[in-house]
Design goal:
Strand content: under 5%
Number of strands: 2
Number of domains: 1
Oligomer: single chain
Length: 171
């Protein structure tokens, strides 16, 4: 009897796999932020201070750099995991054949990164964190799309397990 790949905790597995992918994508994005900051003549800690400012507000730009950096790292990866989980929830609704296509996931990931930029900077940032708009929005858009979304999509497609013997893809 042929079995399909449905069920068996697919939704929970997909989200947990995406969370792992989002940590890796968050690292790529964080590194991209640091490089962009240095290339623009700013401190390499500016991206961590900016992330920390979501909680600490103006105190994130104060003197206690090690603690501020630690808070920034925790916030940055917390947000990356939250968005990665959302990406996994979305993808859990797609059939296996769509989830494993690298090009499709790359495009979805870039689109997802653009959506995150729109939400974080153009909506939430404008309302609550206007100092985040001091950074180049074109650079931020590129980093969100290609430094987070693209790696997230590609890693997601790569982590999707192959079908087991006797299984056929979902329709």
């Amino acid at each position: 009897m042929q079995r399909t790949q449905r069920g068996e905790g697919v939704v929970g597995r997909i989200e947990s796999e995406t969370v792992l992918s989002s940590v890796a994508a968050g690292f790529v994005m964080g590194l991209s932020e640091v490089i962009a900051s240095v290339l623009s003549g700013q401190s390499p800690l500016l991206p961590l201070r900016s992330a920390a400012s979501i909680v600490l507000r103006e105190d994130a730009f104060g003197r206690d750099a090690p603690m501020i950096a630690l808070i920034g790292v925790v916030i940055h990866f917390s947000i990356a995991v939250m968005y990665g989980f959302a990406y996994g929830v979305f993808n859990s609704q797609l059939s296996w054949t769509k989830r494993v296509r690298g090009m499709r996931q790359a495009v979805l990931g870039v689109a997802f990164g653009v959506a995150i930029w729109l939400l974080d900077f153009q909506f939430i940032g404008r309302l609550f964190y206007p100092w985040l708009l001091d950074h180049s929005q074109v650079v931020q858009l590129g980093i969100h799309a290609f430094g987070f979304g693209l790696p997230l999509g590609l890693l997601f497609a790569e982590r999707e397990p192959p079908l087991r013997v006797g299984e056929k893809p979902e329709p």
